[in-house]
């Protein structure tokens, strides 16, 4: 038991950059509410930065019962050693049952450092989380795709606490914000040793995203290896443009340089849930299809009638993209003008 009886809480790392919360942190609050409900304990957010206390109310409105705010000018920019040290101290003091982070560039860097400091296990890139009874103890089952994406594997951490996992952005849904949400904001004064700041971040510049981010688009048109036959992405982009959607793709197209990393879908890319998902020339292997499981409606086009993508599709068209796409775009343009 923790010194003050806090064992059992579910904690979510509230990632923020430049005073804005990462969407995945809110998605994790939705799942965290379900897990903490099963444990009969509180849902807590851990917020680290400089001048970030104003974000606490957003965390409370999305389901947190309590927010620990670790605010210090030296923590303005993400620093691996310093962030890991202050969060590990807090974990040792309060002993949460579960600690979840987004599998972002920061989360993937921070999570293993914290796990090492507190001596617990860590499961990366989970695609599902649920509580299940294990020898009479409610245990976090952490699901990851395994064996080349052909299986789902559950991992548990029966002995050590907290049970830690990182989850890709887009796997869970952002919970509805509650108005006038009540909760506790707890300011934590961190112990910051100068040795934690051997490297200092002078400035962070992020690449501007010129197109609509795929996780926010209502319509996503995703290109697979079969698009190679078209010679370029022009028809794919044209289809997306007509539908006012975003363009995405599979790893082979990223390797070919036809899409950027922020537009890759699947196990090693993004997980999205648009209203309409159109798959063009992708066979539909599981490590791709896990990326759009939450899509409301899936249309697939592929030459191979046996392609697994048709199992995941609501409507399938078996055919050559060179023959299917031009008339499809033409008909959609007519509908738009009608």
Describe the structure in your own words.
The structure is a single chain. With 338 residues, the protein is α/β, with parallel strands linked by helices. The chain has helices spanning 23-39, 56-61, 80-94, 105-118, 234-242, 251-256, 286-289, 309-312, 321-337, and strands at residues 10-14, 16-17, 20-21, 43-49, 66-71, 98-102, 122-126, 128-134, 137-146, 151-155, 163-167, 184-188, 219-223, 246-249, 276-280, 297-302, 315-318. It is elongated and about 65 Å long.
Shape: elongated
CATH fold-level label of the largest domain: Rossmann fold
Which value, in Å, is the CA radius of gyration?
22 Å
Can you tell me the number of structural domains? 2
Q: Termini, distance in Å?
A: 67 Å
Topology as H/E string?
EEEHEHEHEHEEEEEEEHEHEHEHEH
Structural class category? alpha/beta
CATH superfamily of the largest domain: HUPs
Return the CATH class of the largest domain: Alpha Beta
CATH architecture of the largest domain: 3-Layer(aba) Sandwich
Poorly predicted runs are: 1-7
Mean pLDDT across all residues, rounded?
A: 82
For the biggest sheet, the summary is:
7 strands, parallel
Number of helices: 9
> What share of residues are in beta strands?
25-35%
Helix content: 25-40%
- Strands, count: 17
Q: Which key terms come to mind for this protein?
A:
338 residues, alpha/beta, Rossmann fold, seven-stranded parallel sheet, five-stranded parallel sheet, 9 helices, 17 strands
List strands and helices in order, with pairings.
Layout: E1 10-14, E2 16-17, E3 20-21, H1 23-39, E4 43-49, H2 56-61, E5 66-71, H3 80-94, E6 98-102, H4 105-118, E7 122-126, E8 128-134, E9 137-146, E10 151-155, E11 163-167, E12 184-188, E13 219-223, H5 234-242, E14 246-249, H6 251-256, E15 276-280, H7 286-289, E16 297-302, H8 309-312, E17 315-318, H9 321-337
Parallel strand pairs: 1-4, 1-6, 4-5, 5-12, 6-11, 7-11, 13-14, 13-15, 15-16, 16-17
Antiparallel strand pairs: 2-3, 8-9, 9-10
Helix pairs in contact: 3-4, 5-9
